[in-house]
Amino acid sequence: MTRLLVVRHGRTDWNAQGRVQGGGSLDEVGQEQVDALMERLRHERIDGAYCSPVLRTRQTAYAVLAPHGMTVQESKNLMDLDYGTYSGAHLEEARKAAPSLWEMWDRAPNTVHFPSGDGLADLRRRLGRFLAEVVAKYKDGTVLVATHDSPVRVLSCMAMGLDDSYHHLSKISLASLTILDVGESAVTMVLHNDSTHLSDIRDAETKTEEEQPQKGKS
User: Fold this and answer.
1) Which residues share a beta bridge with 143?
2) Residue 142 and residue 46: Cα distance in Å, rounded?
3) What is the pLDDT of residue 213?
4) Which residues pair with 65 in a beta bridge?
Protein backbone atom coordinates (compact mmCIF):
# COMPACT_ATOMS: atom_id res chain seq x y z
CA MET A 1 0.00 0.00 0.00
CA THR A 2 1.29 3.44 -0.96
CA ARG A 3 0.45 6.37 1.33
CA LEU A 4 -0.10 9.76 -0.30
CA LEU A 5 0.23 12.98 1.70
CA VAL A 6 -1.84 15.17 -0.61
CA VAL A 7 -1.55 18.91 0.00
CA ARG A 8 -3.24 21.81 -1.69
CA HIS A 9 -0.90 24.75 -2.33
CA GLY A 10 -0.94 27.83 -0.10
CA ARG A 11 -2.79 31.03 -0.91
CA THR A 12 -1.71 32.94 -4.00
CA ASP A 13 -2.13 36.51 -5.14
CA TRP A 14 -4.70 35.21 -7.65
CA ASN A 15 -6.67 33.48 -4.89
CA ALA A 16 -6.79 36.77 -3.00
CA GLN A 17 -7.97 38.61 -6.12
CA GLY A 18 -10.83 36.15 -6.72
CA ARG A 19 -9.55 34.90 -10.05
CA VAL A 20 -10.39 31.64 -11.75
CA GLN A 21 -7.08 29.86 -11.36
CA GLY A 22 -4.39 29.30 -13.92
CA GLY A 23 -1.50 31.20 -12.38
CA GLY A 24 -0.27 33.16 -9.41
CA SER A 25 2.42 32.67 -6.78
CA LEU A 26 2.27 32.33 -3.00
CA ASP A 27 1.55 35.59 -1.21
CA GLU A 28 2.50 36.41 2.39
CA VAL A 29 -0.42 34.46 3.87
CA GLY A 30 0.30 31.54 1.54
CA GLN A 31 3.92 31.39 2.67
CA GLU A 32 2.80 31.35 6.31
CA GLN A 33 0.40 28.52 5.48
CA VAL A 34 3.01 26.32 3.82
CA ASP A 35 5.48 27.02 6.63
CA ALA A 36 2.87 25.70 9.06
CA LEU A 37 2.33 22.68 6.81
CA MET A 38 6.09 22.10 6.79
CA GLU A 39 6.11 21.95 10.59
CA ARG A 40 3.12 19.60 10.51
CA LEU A 41 5.00 17.15 8.30
CA ARG A 42 8.54 17.75 9.59
CA HIS A 43 8.85 14.35 11.26
CA GLU A 44 6.84 12.32 8.75
CA ARG A 45 8.56 9.66 6.72
CA ILE A 46 8.55 10.79 3.09
CA ASP A 47 10.07 8.57 0.42
CA GLY A 48 9.25 10.63 -2.66
CA ALA A 49 7.51 13.81 -3.76
CA TYR A 50 5.52 15.07 -6.73
CA CYS A 51 3.93 18.37 -7.71
CA SER A 52 2.16 19.79 -10.71
CA PRO A 53 4.52 21.80 -12.96
CA VAL A 54 3.36 25.29 -11.95
CA LEU A 55 4.91 27.85 -9.64
CA ARG A 56 2.45 27.74 -6.74
CA THR A 57 2.68 23.98 -6.24
CA ARG A 58 6.47 23.95 -6.69
CA GLN A 59 6.76 26.67 -4.04
CA THR A 60 4.54 24.65 -1.70
CA ALA A 61 6.30 21.33 -2.25
CA TYR A 62 9.82 22.67 -1.76
CA ALA A 63 8.81 24.63 1.34
CA VAL A 64 7.21 21.56 2.92
CA LEU A 65 10.20 19.38 2.03
CA ALA A 66 12.87 21.79 3.32
CA PRO A 67 13.57 19.68 6.47
CA HIS A 68 13.80 16.53 4.34
CA GLY A 69 16.29 17.83 1.77
CA MET A 70 14.44 16.18 -1.10
CA THR A 71 13.85 17.06 -4.72
CA VAL A 72 10.39 17.08 -6.29
CA GLN A 73 9.27 15.31 -9.45
CA GLU A 74 6.89 17.32 -11.62
CA SER A 75 3.89 15.56 -13.16
CA LYS A 76 1.49 17.04 -15.70
CA ASN A 77 -1.07 14.54 -14.45
CA LEU A 78 -1.34 16.65 -11.27
CA MET A 79 -2.27 19.81 -13.17
CA ASP A 80 -5.43 21.58 -12.08
CA LEU A 81 -8.64 21.43 -14.06
CA ASP A 82 -8.10 23.58 -17.15
CA TYR A 83 -10.68 26.36 -17.21
CA GLY A 84 -9.66 27.26 -20.77
CA THR A 85 -10.79 30.70 -21.89
CA TYR A 86 -11.75 31.57 -18.30
CA SER A 87 -8.35 30.81 -16.72
CA GLY A 88 -7.19 33.93 -14.91
CA ALA A 89 -10.49 35.79 -15.30
CA HIS A 90 -12.18 37.35 -12.31
CA LEU A 91 -14.89 34.91 -11.27
CA GLU A 92 -17.66 37.49 -11.14
CA GLU A 93 -16.89 38.61 -14.69
CA ALA A 94 -16.68 35.03 -15.95
CA ARG A 95 -20.10 34.23 -14.50
CA LYS A 96 -21.61 37.27 -16.17
CA ALA A 97 -20.02 36.36 -19.50
CA ALA A 98 -21.41 32.80 -19.59
CA PRO A 99 -24.18 32.40 -17.01
CA SER A 100 -25.59 29.15 -18.42
CA LEU A 101 -22.16 27.47 -18.34
CA TRP A 102 -21.52 28.44 -14.74
CA GLU A 103 -25.05 27.49 -13.71
CA MET A 104 -24.39 24.02 -15.14
CA TRP A 105 -21.05 23.95 -13.30
CA ASP A 106 -22.96 24.62 -10.08
CA ARG A 107 -25.66 21.98 -10.72
CA ALA A 108 -23.91 19.22 -12.68
CA PRO A 109 -20.15 19.80 -12.78
CA ASN A 110 -19.49 16.39 -14.34
CA THR A 111 -21.26 17.55 -17.54
CA VAL A 112 -19.17 20.68 -18.09
CA HIS A 113 -16.27 20.93 -20.52
CA PHE A 114 -14.71 24.40 -20.39
CA PRO A 115 -14.12 26.03 -23.82
CA SER A 116 -10.49 25.49 -24.88
CA GLY A 117 -10.00 23.65 -21.59
CA ASP A 118 -11.14 20.34 -20.22
CA GLY A 119 -13.67 18.64 -17.94
CA LEU A 120 -13.64 16.55 -14.81
CA ALA A 121 -13.53 13.28 -16.77
CA ASP A 122 -10.22 14.42 -18.30
CA LEU A 123 -8.87 15.26 -14.86
CA ARG A 124 -9.96 11.90 -13.42
CA ARG A 125 -8.18 10.05 -16.23
CA ARG A 126 -4.98 12.01 -15.59
CA LEU A 127 -5.13 11.25 -11.88
CA GLY A 128 -5.71 7.57 -12.61
CA ARG A 129 -2.48 7.54 -14.62
CA PHE A 130 -0.67 9.30 -11.79
CA LEU A 131 -1.87 6.80 -9.18
CA ALA A 132 -0.75 3.87 -11.32
CA GLU A 133 2.69 5.44 -11.73
CA VAL A 134 3.23 6.30 -8.08
CA VAL A 135 2.01 2.92 -6.78
CA ALA A 136 4.36 1.10 -9.15
CA LYS A 137 7.32 3.24 -8.11
CA TYR A 138 6.68 3.62 -4.37
CA LYS A 139 5.05 0.40 -3.26
CA ASP A 140 4.78 0.51 0.56
CA GLY A 141 6.24 4.04 0.50
CA THR A 142 4.97 7.46 1.57
CA VAL A 143 4.77 10.19 -1.06
CA LEU A 144 4.09 13.92 -0.79
CA VAL A 145 1.78 15.21 -3.53
CA ALA A 146 1.41 18.98 -3.97
CA THR A 147 -1.51 19.84 -6.22
CA HIS A 148 -4.69 21.91 -6.55
CA ASP A 149 -8.29 22.14 -5.36
CA SER A 150 -9.95 20.12 -8.15
CA PRO A 151 -7.44 17.24 -8.14
CA VAL A 152 -7.88 16.82 -4.37
CA ARG A 153 -11.66 16.82 -4.82
CA VAL A 154 -11.48 14.18 -7.55
CA LEU A 155 -9.08 12.01 -5.53
CA SER A 156 -11.43 12.33 -2.55
CA CYS A 157 -14.41 11.26 -4.67
CA MET A 158 -12.41 8.28 -5.91
CA ALA A 159 -11.66 7.27 -2.32
CA MET A 160 -15.34 7.58 -1.37
CA GLY A 161 -16.58 5.71 -4.45
CA LEU A 162 -18.34 8.79 -5.84
CA ASP A 163 -18.56 10.01 -9.41
CA ASP A 164 -17.76 13.56 -10.47
CA SER A 165 -21.32 14.80 -10.01
CA TYR A 166 -20.29 15.05 -6.33
CA HIS A 167 -17.38 17.37 -7.11
CA HIS A 168 -18.78 20.22 -5.00
CA LEU A 169 -19.52 17.96 -2.03
CA SER A 170 -16.80 19.35 0.22
CA LYS A 171 -14.39 22.24 0.49
CA ILE A 172 -10.64 21.75 0.11
CA SER A 173 -8.84 24.43 2.11
CA LEU A 174 -5.64 26.07 1.01
CA ALA A 175 -2.55 24.33 2.45
CA SER A 176 -4.73 21.50 3.77
CA LEU A 177 -3.66 17.88 4.17
CA THR A 178 -5.53 14.87 2.81
CA ILE A 179 -4.07 11.40 3.35
CA LEU A 180 -4.89 8.50 1.03
CA ASP A 181 -3.78 4.89 1.01
CA VAL A 182 -3.56 3.59 -2.55
CA GLY A 183 -3.35 -0.03 -3.65
CA GLU A 184 -3.44 -1.56 -7.10
CA SER A 185 -7.24 -1.44 -7.25
CA ALA A 186 -8.47 0.77 -4.41
CA VAL A 187 -8.07 4.22 -2.87
CA THR A 188 -8.84 4.59 0.85
CA MET A 189 -9.37 7.85 2.74
CA VAL A 190 -7.32 8.19 5.93
CA LEU A 191 -7.64 11.95 6.54
CA HIS A 192 -9.63 14.56 4.62
CA ASN A 193 -9.00 18.28 4.25
CA ASP A 194 -7.26 18.72 7.60
CA SER A 195 -6.07 22.27 8.32
CA THR A 196 -5.57 22.21 12.09
CA HIS A 197 -1.95 23.26 11.52
CA LEU A 198 -3.26 26.62 10.28
CA SER A 199 -5.08 27.53 13.50
CA ASP A 200 -2.43 30.07 14.56
CA ILE A 201 -2.46 31.95 11.26
CA ARG A 202 -4.75 34.91 11.83
CA ASP A 203 -7.48 35.32 9.21
CA ALA A 204 -6.00 32.53 7.08
CA GLU A 205 -9.48 31.31 6.14
CA THR A 206 -11.41 34.58 6.08
CA LYS A 207 -8.92 36.10 3.62
CA THR A 208 -9.05 33.10 1.29
CA GLU A 209 -10.69 33.00 -2.12
CA GLU A 210 -11.40 29.60 -3.65
CA GLU A 211 -9.07 28.33 -6.34
CA GLN A 212 -11.93 26.93 -8.37
CA PRO A 213 -15.34 28.51 -8.94
CA GLN A 214 -17.71 26.84 -6.50
CA LYS A 215 -21.44 26.60 -6.19
CA GLY A 216 -22.78 29.77 -4.68
CA LYS A 217 -19.55 31.72 -5.26
CA SER A 218 -19.71 34.82 -7.40
Assistant:
1) 4, 48
2) 5
3) 61
4) none
